[in-house]
Every structure is written in C-alpha cells, then in structure tokens.
Amino acid sequence: MKKRLAVMLLSLLALPMLAQASCESVKAEISKKLVSNGLAESDFTLEIVPNDQADQAGGQVVGHCENDTQKIVYKKLSRDAQSNVPNDAGSSHDTPQ
Predict the structure, then answer these.
(1) 43 CB contacts (<8 Å, ≥6 apart)?
(2) DSSP string across 44-91
(3) Strands 44-50, 60-65: parallel, antiparallel or unpaired by DSSP?
(4) What are the pLDDT digits (tens) for 62-82?
(5) Which of 23, 80, 90, 93 is least surrounded, with the fewest CB atoms within 10 Å of its CB?
C-alpha cells in the first residue's frame, strides 16, 4: 500500500514536467509539418505563450497544449508571397471534435 501511495505521489509531482514536455512536443510536431510543407525553418518562429497573452504575441495561433492553457503562436519572418500557415500545418490536437 505504501508503494502505491509513493508511486501516485511521484506521478503527481512529475505532471508539471510532463505538461511542459508535451508543449515542446506539440511545437516540434507543428514545426515539422511546416517544414514538410515547404517552409524553411529560418522563415518562421513558433512561440509557446499563455492563453491570455496569445493576442499580444503578434502572430497566428496554430496549436495549444497543457490542457489548453498555453497557445503556440506562429510568426512569419520572411517576405514571400504566401503569408498564411498551410491548412494542414496544425497539430493533431487542433482537429475539430
């Protein structure tokens, strides 16, 4: 019984670290999709911001993580003809349910 309690306690303590890792993995997934759609990694940035700061981040929200408390914001750096993120560039977490 004590082992089970210890495992549950350690799991609860590790949750914040796992949540941040999931944001990084979602960000990496979106970045990979953007690159596979023809954008160079030097042409954009992806930033993880709290929900309440997403509007001030100055980009387009392309994903979310940490139980929808964080947003992933895309910012285009180059000045070519295409200014929008491809429709299929978001993460699997962004599909309508």
Answers:
(1) 76, 77, 78, 80
(2) EEEEEEEGGGTGGG-SEEEEEETTTTEEEEEEE-S-SS--S--GGGS-
(3) unpaired
(4) 999 988 899 999 999 866 545
(5) 80
Mean pLDDT taken over the chain? 78
d(CA 58, CA 49): 11
CA separation for the pair 11, 62 (Å, rounded): 30
Domain ranges across the chain: 2-94
Distant-in-sequence, close-in-space partners of 68: CB < 8 Å, separation ≥ 6: 51
Alpha carbons within 13 angstroms on the beta-carbon side of residue 26 total 26
